Amino acid sequence: MIKLSEEYKRPGTSLHYPVLTSERARVKTIGEAKVKLRQLLIDKTTATHDGDESRAAELQYYAIPRLEQHIKTLEKEKAAADAHDQSSFGSTEVRNTLYWNVLTCN
Length: 106
Prior knowledge:
Layout: H1 6-9, H2 18-50, H3 53-89, H4 92-103
Helix pairs in contact: 2-3
């Protein structure tokens, strides 16, 4: 049985695992990139509407495709990391059971 410090035995506290932390960080980074992409698409539409064709072209042909490629790369890295985590820790059900047992001190 894993012994936990008193800090983690108090109600309202939780353990943070490196795998979960890095997984959360990957998801957060992808989400932030997608929010930025949506904002760039809005900016492009606004620039087109306002007649600022150079800004619209810069967004359409440079910034937006570059960010879309970055998001694809992040998603591929996340998928590879998830596959590695899956193979390292077994099935999601087993992994969740292990985490729950540690969290509840079973």
